[in-house]
Amino acid sequence: MNYISKVLWEFLVHWMRHSQIWPDEASTIAPQVDLLYLFLVSLSLVGLVLVGLLVFGFSIRYRKARNPVATQIEGSVLLEATWTLIPLALFMICFVWGALLYFRIYSPPVNAMNIYVVGKQWMWKAEHPSGQHEINSLHVPTGRPVQLTIISQDVFHSFSVPAFRVKREAVPGRYNTVWFQATTPGTYHLFCTQYCGTLHSQMIGDVTVMTPAEYDRWTGDSTSGQSLAQNGERLFTTLGCANCHAGDAAARAPNLAGAYGGREAMADGSYAKIDEAFLRDCILDPTLHVPAGYAAIMPSFRGQVSEDGIISLVEYIKNMKTPYRIRQTLVNDAITPGAGTVPPVQPPTPAPKVKP
């Protein structure tokens, strides 16, 4: 019996895929999503058939010709408990199964490669940390988890790749994350599934899945010359952030080196986790998060920095390992040996001896 059901199951899945009813399974999470979906469909079909048969049987058994006078039927506690507990158990199975799958989809692995995606009317812009920029296109390698950090620049959008079974909303002013691990090289459709204006239907693109070797060649050939962190460092200096976040004793703002991923004490006595969303809020609305021991003197950069610029600044701060002023000294030393250091004291030159 198990063998027959397995064969029928595989036949059903094979037929649906090749009849274009079922999209490709191109990620590690796709088969698990499909399994839950088919379980729900099967459960619904079983319930439909069961209820239909009962309705048909009761309509024949209790038709007016056989029962001209209505018959009072007393309830059965066992029967009522059965049709209550069995559906409850099935619903709880669906709930637990779906919750576990949900948390797996929206909890990226620690070693995932992060790519920023910005939704705009009406296009998707992907920014790789190493400097690649794409419009309505996304290149990813197989066999490596990829985390997408998604945000919208204007209205609500929704990033969806059916072949990966991933979908995540792009919300203005808030980072959302989703991850996947592609398994099969090829080109797959990318859609916006949230109505976002008159050209919503044209907000489409492609996701190109490549082997690791092909992806390495692509990243080497398509780099813009500067990574997101390097662009962020330039903005960090241009906007004057280095004047306060210098990382020394005289600094008027906290040291940002190594701060990402940790917790910071706030002036109101609370503690905040320093992640992408926290850094973005500090750049646009610094009064929301005032660190303990510092005055609320940081200006807002809202309107001065684009969403792409904020991403670059966040990526720079994430990768900052040494205080800014010390790092600049090290860079200057590398460019001009001895710059920024105290010159060594030279011993006095002895006076020449005079012959008598």
Walkthrough of the structure:
The chain is of the alpha+beta class. The chain has helices at 2-18, 30-61, 77-105, 212-222, 228-238, 241-244, 276-284, 307-318, 324-335, and strands at 113-120, 123-127, 133-135, 137-141, 146-152, 157-161, 166-170, 176-180, 186-192, 204-210, 263-265, 271-273. It folds into three domains: 2-66 and 76-105, no CATH class; 113-222, Immunoglobulin-like (Sandwich); 228-335, Cytochrome Bc1 Complex, Chain D, domain 2 (Orthogonal Bundle). The chain has a five-stranded mixed beta sheet, with helices on one face. It has a five-stranded mixed beta sheet with strand order 4-10-9-6-7. A two-stranded antiparallel sheet has the order 11-12. The protein is elongated. Mean pLDDT is 80; it is low at 330-356.
Rg, Cα atoms, Å: 31 Å
Which percent range describes the beta-strand content? Answer: 15-25%
Write down the CATH class of the largest domain: Mainly Beta
- C-alpha termini separation: 121 Å
The side-by-side strand order for the widest beta sheet comes to 3-2-1-5-8
Category from helices, strands and their pairing = alpha+beta
Number of domains: 3
Structure annotation, total helices: 9
> In the CATH scheme, what's the topology name of the largest domain?
Immunoglobulin-like
